[in-house]
Structure formats: C-alpha cells, structure tokens
Amino acid sequence: MPATFSLLNEDSGARLGRIETRRGSIDTPAFMPVGTAATVKALTVDQVNQTGSQIILCNTYHLYLRPGTDRIERFGGLHGFMNFEKPILTDSGGFQVMSLSKNTKISEDGVTFNSHIDGKKIFLSPETSIDIQKKLNSDIVMVFDECPEYSKDKSIIKNSMDLSMRWAKRSKIEFGNNDEKMLFGIVQGGIFNDLRRESLNRLIDIGFDGYALGGLAVGESQIEMFETVEEISPLMDKYKPRYVMGTGTPSDLLGAVKRGIDMFDCVLPSRTGRTGLAFTWEGKLNLRNAKYTKDDAPLDINVDCPASKLYSRNYLNHLINCNEILASTLITWHNIAFYQDLMKKIRISIENGNFEDFYNQQIEKLSY
C-alpha cells in the first residue's frame, strides 16, 4: 500500500494527523522512541509495544558499523531482524558523523571519518546512506545531510546548508520511486531564519514526502528552538508531515506541537531512565534520592503501564542504588509510556478542539 499522510484537524496551531504505512498507522503528533542499534535500550519489543509506541527510530550510522547491513538484510530488513512489526524511521547518520566521529573530512562527495568503535576509516555519501537505508528496509527514510555544531558564524552554517541541499538532491535520486516508503528532506540553517527559509524552499523544489527540521537540540536554547520552529513550520507543506529531529523534553514537545510540528524523537526518556530519572505528571523524580526510601507510592498511578503502577518508588530507589539491571528496564518503560501518554492526551485535546486549554494547564507543570 502507498504511504500517505492525512491532516485530520487543526486547533490553536496544533495539528492532528495520521501516517499510513504498509506496517501500520502512526497517529500524529507522534513521539518515536530511539532504538539506535535495533533495540530501545533496556526494553523488549513487547514492552515497547505496551507503551503505545506506533513507530521507532533506528540509526543508519550505528547499524552500518555494527552489525553491518549484510546481517540485517538476511532478515529482509530491520523488522525481521529485531522482531518489530510496526513502522521504523531510519536517521541517515549525518548527526552521528558530527557528534561521534574523529578526524572527519567533509567533501562534495561525502564524509570520511574514523569509526568511534575501532577507528576504522569509513566513507558515507548521500548514495551510500540511502542504499544502507534501503537494505535496512525502513518505512521512513531520511536524506543524508551535514549537521553542523551550534554556531553563530553565519558563513559556516551557510556553507553547510548549501552542501546539505546538494546532498538532498542526490539522496532523492538514489532513493528513486517507491510509494510504499516515505523520503523526508531535512531543513538546515542553524538559528538563521533566512537560511532556514532558503533551505526549505530548495527542498520543496526537489520534492519530498515530509520535511524535518535538523540541526536543533545541538546547543541552542529552548527559546531559540521555538523561534526557529515558529518561523519555519507555517512555511512547510500543510499536507505533509513536519518533524523536529532529536528533541526533546516534555515541554519541548508541547511547545513544538503548538507551533505545528507532527513528529519527534529523542533519547531522553530512555537515557534518563537508565540514570534513575523518571518523568511523571507531578514532576521529574530523581529516584536515587534518599527521600524515596520512605515513599511507598507507585511511580505514577496516572500512566497506564505496569512499571508505572505496580512498583513503588521505594523499590525503584533500592534497585537503582544496588545497580540492578531491572531499574533501567522499569524506569525506561515508564518514561516512554509517560511520553506516549502525553502525546495521546495532546491528540485528544486537538481532536476535541481544546488544545489551548490543555497547553495552558500543562506547560508549567511539564517545564521541569
């Protein structure tokens, strides 16, 4: 079946939609847990499904280095390899080349870098990134881009954006025609709105199935991020998905939805879960703190997840302080379930036409 996006409702800038893929539906606004290396760290696939997650993100860079595309391709792609039947989006690897690699050399052809695992020299180009993603057989594919570090030097960001736009065109050519999958372009330009507008216009001229804002969550403030989203989001195609990559906190999500964004991913709920930090409707809880030795309440009775309802804060504090693996599993499970509960409540509020009320009720409580 062709992959499609439908815009179902709009309310106070927020958008309710649905992406249909051969692997299932994705209700938007949507949060994608990050399964970097074909696993959402600390969770089984069944636990991920129980959180209400309808799509996950996996990463081209990491999977290319380990285990390699040949092993995954033998299963027909990531779905068979990791036993996950729902849609998967693959990030192209551009961000990881910037953030993880050493001795990176960027040319018109692509990027040469040393693997962060064993130092081996690797080359990635728009063509190789798209080819890898085809072998991974993901449902939503991202163009290969250069994701520069946060900078106020406009010339650096301009040159990087120009290169990314040329790479986007090559990515589209390599992707070819496949109406069962979606190919998203990535808007670059840092915190410079004129560069962002230019980048978006050039991507629209190429033509993509969805548009992402990249180069955020790399050091800018939340205010700067929101200013960028508020400027660029209304210029994006109304009838295609809009995606902010790599963000964020609960208040990041709520604020970006208000500004017209449909899709998000972030490692935060799983990464903080492994350190003992829990997101709840009553605030952020550092379960390492001694005060939780006397707190026998469930983690969050308002979240429909076994980890949230069946285990006390007292017990979780004990697991964390004993370095038990179960602590990472339970808190990560809860955190992702909380994020999905947030997204579900956002969608209901847009459907009912009271998103503004929901936003005003929650934004201060979620700004922790």
Task: Walk me through what this model shows.
- By secondary structure, the protein is α/β, with parallel strands linked by helices.
- The protein has two domains: 4-266, TIM Barrel (Alpha-Beta Barrel), CATH 3.20.20; 279-368, no CATH class.
- The protein has 15 helices and 16 strands.
- It has helices at residues 45-50, 60-65, 69-73, 78-82, 94-100, 126-136, 154-175, 193-206, 222-232, 250-258, 268-273, 306-309, 313-321, 325-352, 355-366, and strands spanning 4-11, 14-21, 24-28, 30-33, 56-59, 88-91, 102-106, 111-114, 121-124, 140-142, 182-187, 210-213, 242-244, 263-266, 277-280, 283-286.
- α6 (126-136) packs across α7, α7 (154-175) packs parallel to α8 (193-206) and α10 (250-258) runs antiparallel to α15 (355-366).
- The protein is globular and about 60 Å long.
- It starts with a strand and ends with a helix.
- The mean pLDDT is 96.
Q: Main sheet?
A: 8 strands, parallel
Calculate the terminal CA-CA distance, rounded to whole Å. 42 Å
Helix/strand class? alpha/beta
Strand content: 15-25%
SS element count, helices = 15
Tell the overall outline.
globular
What is the name of the CATH class of the largest domain? Answer: Alpha Beta
- Tell me the helix content: 40-55%
**Domain unit count:** 2
Indicate the CATH topology of the largest domain: TIM Barrel
CATH architectural category of the largest domain: Alpha-Beta Barrel
- Gyration radius (Cα, Å) is 20 Å
- Spatial ordering of strands, largest sheet: 4-14-13-12-11-10-6-5
| Assigned CATH superfamily of the largest domain | Queuine tRNA-ribosyltransferase-like
**Mean pLDDT over the full residue set:** 96
Stretches where pLDDT is under 50 for at least 5 consecutive residues are none
Q: What's the total count of β strands?
A: 16
